[in-house]
Design goal:
Length: 388
């Protein structure tokens, strides 16, 4: 196992000028946003800049869909043309913008109001616009949403206090459900390839992790029987800080504030510091299969997967092995991936694109260099002994 720098294995490096606050890689395009509100798009294949715009920052989230880029920043929601960066429309939200989700013909956004005197979020809004920017519906709730995603074709939100649990939206109707241990939801992820079959995994501040199950309702003697929306999976005595649900396979990864990274297949790895972002990434070796890249402070840990091309093998130590450790000069705080490419963003605004084929070539070069250095060191040691 080698320990090298992120710079060394990057296909190209770009700069936002201030901390990266959101990053997206989809359909061959990288879009990254900064704390100062700079938004830049590059071609993932070459690193060529396609467009850049400046808006009021910080950029909080990015979603791309059918050639459009949707961005929440400061207190607004923007729609951009993905080909040239021209602004299609802009809508003001109440409070600070949080998340954006683009699905089918709807653009969803969340915003929240933080009261300094109270020291907590006192209200938040859920907004649904059509692709032309027309407001279809707004819901106001008393807690902040810490996750928005899809589950079985429905939009769901993971809530903080006071209610906690899940808010499910079907059409214009909302339903609230308790989930897991009833504690606040702090993060989550879901499979994104098939909206109708998307499955969500949510993390709690208590350390519990829950699978959101299908909600069904039956009548027995005219009394409704409601199935549970939750199934506890993993529990740790530390708050969950990040969850990764890959589109391929059935494994998912949970990271905790105490530094542990755990799989639902039973393996764990001690990163020794909290993980800020995770993504499926390349390694450049077909035999390695799918890998998990975890940004932990100034390091990136590349871990082996229990799932290889969708075939599950949970025997022995098939997952959770440290394949590669990358060093960096500052904290890495964002990541996304597509195909054989992963992109990373850091707290200084650096954007790093890593391609599997180039990674494999760079690793071979580093290995050859290390071998030459080792041989040189041995030769020098022998010469010193001869001189003695």
């Amino acid at each position: 196992m080698a320990s090298i720098s992120v710079d060394t294995i990057s296909s190209f490096i770009r700069d936002l000028g201030s901390p990266c606050t959101a990053i997206s890689l989809k359909d061959g395009s990288i879009v990254a946003g900064s704390k100062d509100g700079l938004l830049i798009s590059w071609l993932a294949s070459t690193g060529e800049e396609v467009w850049r715009v400046s808006i009021e920052g910080p950029v909080s989230d990015i979603a791309t869909n059918h050639g459009h880029v949707f961005v929440t920043a400061s207190s607004s929601l923007y729609a951009f043309d993905g080909s040239d960066g021209s602004i299609l429309w802009k809508r003001e939200l109440e409070g600070a913008s949080d998340y954006v989700l683009a699905v089918e013909g709807s653009i969803w956004a969340t915003s929240s109001v933080y009261e300094i005197e109270v020291g907590d979020y006192t209200e938040s809004s859920i907004w649904r616009f059509n692709r032309s920017g027309e407001l279809g519906k707004r819901w106001v709730i008393p807690e902040r949403s810490w996750f928005i995603g899809l589950h079985r074709g429905k939009v769901i939100l993971g809530l903080g206090r006071p209610r906690c649990g899940i808010l499910s939206i079907d059409g214009d109707d909302t339903e609230h459900f308790e989930i897991g241990d009833g504690g606040p939801i702090v993060c989550g992820d879901y499979k994104k390839q098939d909206c109708e079959r998307a499955v969500a995994i949510l993390g709690h501040s208590s350390g519990a992790v829950s699978l959101v199950e299908e909600h069904t309702e039956e009548l027995q003697d005219d009394n409704p029987i409601v199935s549970s929306w939750q199934a506890p999976i993993i529990e740790e005595s530390s708050a969950v800080c990040c969850i990764l649900v890959p589109d391929i396979g059935s494994e998912f990864i949970t990271a905790y504030e105490n530094g542990f990274i755990r799989s639902n297949y039973g393996w764990s790895y001690d990163a020794q510091s909290a993980v800020s972002a995770m993504a499926v990434g390349p390694f450049g070796d077909e035999g390695t299969g799918q890998t998990y890249w975890a940004c932990a402070g100034k390091r990136v840990l590349v871990l082996s997967s229990s799932d290889t091309a969708g075939d599950v093998d949970i025997s022995g130590d098939s997952g959770g092995q440290l394949i590669l450790e990358l060093e960096h000069e500052c904290c890495l705080i964002g990541s996304d991936s597509e195909g054989d490419t992963i992109v990373l963003g850091d707290e200084r605004g650096g954007i790093y694109s890593i391609n599997g084929q180039i990674l494999s070539r760079r690793m071979d070069e580093v290995s050859a260099e290390t071998t030459r250095d080792t041989r040189t060191s041995l030769l020098r040691a022998r010469l010193r002994k001869l001189r003695e």
